[in-house]
Amino acid sequence: MDLGISGKRALVLASSRGLGLGIATALAREGAHVLLVGRTEERLAENCKAINAEGKGKADWVGGDLADADFVAAMVQAVEEKLGGIDILVNNTGGPTPGTAEEMTVDKLETFFQSMVLRVITLTTALLPQMKAQGFGRILTVASSGVFEPIPNLALSNTLRGALVGWNKTLSAEVAPHGITSNMILPGRIHTDRIDELDGANAKRQGKSMEDIRTASLKTIPAGRLGTVEEFGAAAAFLCSAPASYVNGTMLRVDGGASKSI
């Protein structure tokens, strides 16, 4: 299938590794010009070199930290300077520290709200006028399967990512008349460094081995395995595509069937 995004310009947040990098790579393989964003500049440069070596799309990078107050202004400037405009925005953020609901403090809530919710909303709002003017845009926000079924010991993530659900649905109806879609993609157990970190934290909390934690988690997934970054990136690329123009305001679960809700 031709996704119809060759030459489209995409900003992918938190794309120095993991799911963000997987999405950026998938978009570039469809011929898009992607702008990678992250805190580790050496890793970003290496990723761009690898993407460009494939000779399909094009990749550039810019350093940025979602926790910084000037992040949105810096990204708007980078989009203009490096991409010359925007067609696709992939909102992706790092996950907060594990913990229970009782362990959430005001400081933690405020800190992670800034980077996981406020920056996502304000950056999207800042880039929308360009998409409206050209009559095309794709907004994709990466969240978590925890917005459907809260994940134990990830109270901060369940709370803050859940806030984006109502925002996305509201936004999707507002932008649809302008040829713009706004969707969410929800990863389940996709094998990344983040999953390894969370399994390690759960092993420590429960006094079990990492292997025991991983084995138990696989039993909850009908597919019987962890997902791959490539599989997740492919699903994300479709939601950013031209053929997905009638998919709007939805949440796509990429979890191997693990979610039990309908």
Automatic annotation (TrEMBL):
Family stated for the protein in its record: Belongs to the short-chain dehydrogenases/reductases (SDR) family.
Protein name: 3-oxoacyl-ACP reductase
Gene3D superfamilies from the UniProt entry: NAD(P)-binding Rossmann-like Domain
Record-linked CDD domains: BKR_like_SDR_like (cd05344)
Stretches assigned to coiled coil: none
InterPro entries the UniProt entry points to: NAD(P)-bd_dom_sf, SDR, SDR_fam
